[in-house]
Amino acid sequence: MRMTLTIDDDVAVEIERLRRQKDASLKQVVNDTLRLGLRAAEAPAKPRKPFRMKTFDGGKLLIPIDNVAEALALAEGEDFK
Known about the structure:
- The protein is mostly helical.
- 49% of the residues lie in helices and 0% in strands.
């Protein structure tokens, strides 16, 4: 099948690099690369390891954070406005 395809410059550079490395034709490199990409796109996603964040007990808070005005007053003094 013949078709016209516009390839971005960065992709064209990579295709040309592969073509020279494999000493293959442009057609062969493009077809092989498309086959690999299509197989990868159809493959099920690998399950990821759940993200776990390590925590620690920081102790009692020095400034209460449930009242913003009070926290600012304690941190910056009464003239925080």
